Amino acid sequence: MTVTITQLISYPIKSCAGVEHQQTTIHTMGLATDRQLMLVDKNGLFLSQRKHPQMALIQPEFSAQGLIVKAPGMEQLTLDFQRNIYSPLDVTIWKDSLQAELLHQDVNQWFSDYLKLPVKLVKYGAQSHRPIDPDYAMNEETVAFADGYPLLVAHEATFNQLNQYLQQPVTMDRFRPNIVVNSQFSPWDELNWISLSNDEFKIDLVKPCSRCVMTG
């Protein structure tokens, strides 16, 4: 049976709003622009909507000038990665510690002003290395700043059935998928899928995703 991709979504800054793509590049670490940036506190610990729900209103978008970032009450910020000078910074995301690249102070001040606490924006860099859970890795794959795995795939049939059980329907973006697919399979059938593939790529589906409070 055919499975059709209906949405491609990346989240350039971890735990901030997503960007939908008509087409994008995919590699072993997921979508090329997905979660390559992350906000950390003064101790290098990652920030998320779980404790800072206002991060959901930070909206990145891509332009010819670089990555544009908008947020309520803030002037527009443009990140030019070609001109930025990075310095190394040790960061922690969940149980993983790694070296990331720190962006310059003006950028950090913008995010600090919006969140009303001192934060820094870091980039997954050439020296960064974060292996995925070895229980599910096929070839020692790595991941950037996603919680655990390079891609999250969602099935429209399951999502539509879920909404039938809810008094107030939710939108797909609540689940923060990277790839949304449509098919003639029944709801929940994706729990038995092993992989998705075509002539150009193959995605191994190693485990279901446990969603957190951010979904609610």
UniProtKB/TrEMBL annotation:
Residue intervals of the MOSC domain: 119-216
Alphabetized Pfam families for the sequence: MOSC, MOSC_N
PROSITE patterns, per database record: MOSC
**InterPro entries according to UniProt:** MoCF_Sase_C, MOCOS_middle
Q: Which terms does the record give in the GO molecular function aspect?
A: catalytic activity; molybdenum ion binding; pyridoxal phosphate binding
This chain belongs to which protein, by name? Flavodoxin reductases (Ferredoxin-NADPH reductases) family 1
Q: Which organism is it from?
A: hydrothermal vent metagenome
